[in-house]
Design brief:
This protein has 257 residues and is α/β, with parallel strands linked by helices. It has a domain of 145 residues: 3-Layer(aba) Sandwich (Rossmann fold). The protein is 36% helix and 25% strand. The chain has 9 helices and 10 strands. The strands form 2 sheets. Strands 6-7-8-3-9-10 form a 6-stranded mixed beta sheet, sandwiched between helices. A 4-stranded antiparallel beta sheet has the order 2-1-4-5, covered by helices on one side. β7, α5 and β8 form a beta-alpha-beta unit. The longest helix has 17 residues.
């Protein structure tokens, strides 16, 4: 049994005067421990699909199951990390990383210690009493990752979490997130329009077309890339070949990211 299964997903947004189909006939599976990426241009429904997977919106048609249970009936936790950190500026870093545990009523001595351990692993020792405005953008995103992981979610959903960062910080954070998720054996789905990021971080890449969003093709990343860090993958001789393959596929569809 696959860890996550999407079957025949179709979604249309309705208004008083129009109907806009965001997704059409999307079916795919994700294995436990995999890091997969949804890649495609704006308008291909990537973020809508993440929201459906998380159970935030119901698809117009189709089903999403996690470990064989429909997500709307599952009590499994999901971690959601966005391009903005959305830390509460009036709360300390400690208060920010514990807020998910408090809301889920799972804050305990053990879970608090786990959150602080994560903070340390992210290289953020000593910032517990700081406020978000005292930290750099990259540090705030690391805090957001700690907050996401602190609840020990079954599945992590990453919606362009590095796109607002400068390039050097982005590359460093890609490595940090990749190593962290691998060490905790987490299953993750990344949404991006960055081909290089998709290749460097993923085990598999799902390429979508737009208007409406359809799954066009799946690429399996070569073993020599998916077993090394994103930064190392970008500098590997095999990187250029898979990059050109995906780029040409997008061009053949008349789309660019």
């Amino acid at each position: 049994m696959d860890f996550l299964t999407l079957k025949d997903i179709h979604h249309t947004y309705f208004s008083k005067t129009s109907a806009n189909t965001a997704l059409s006939d999307v079916s795919l599976e994700v294995k436990e421990g995999e890091f997969v990426t949804f890649l495609g241009p704006s308008g291909c429904g990537k973020t809508t699909l993440l929201s459906i997977i998380a159970g935030l919106i119901d698809p117009s048609e189709g089903t999403v199951t996690l470990e064989g249970i429909e997500v709307k009936e599952s009590d499994s936790t999901f971690g959601y990390m966005l391009q903005q950190d959305y830390l509460f500026p009036w709360r300390t870093i400690e208060e920010n990383i514990l807020i998910g545990l408090k809301l889920s009523k799972s804050l305990s001595t053990e879970s608090r210690q786990y959150a602080f351990q994560l903070l340390s692993q992210m290289g953020l020792d000593g910032v517990e009493t700081h406020f978000p405005q005292q930290l750099s953008g990259g540090m705030r995103q690391r805090v957001a990752l700690v907050r996401t992981l602190a609840t020990d979610p079954k599945l992590l959903l990453l919606d362009e979490p590095f796109s607002a960062l400068d390039y050097q910080t982005k590359l460093k954070l890609e490595d940090l997130v990749w190593h962290t998720l691998k060490s905790f054996r987490k299953t993750a789905i990344l949404v991006t329009h960055d081909i290089g990021e998709a290749i460097a971080m993923s085990d598999r890449v799902f390429l979508f077309t737009a208007n409406p969003g359809r799954l066009h093709r799946m690429f399996t990343i070569p073993d020599q890339l998916k077993t090394i860090s994103p930064f190392a993958a970008r500098n590997h001789e095999a990187f250029s070949g898979i990059f050109q393959t995906i780029w040409k596929e997008l061009e053949s569809l008349g789309q660019t990211t």
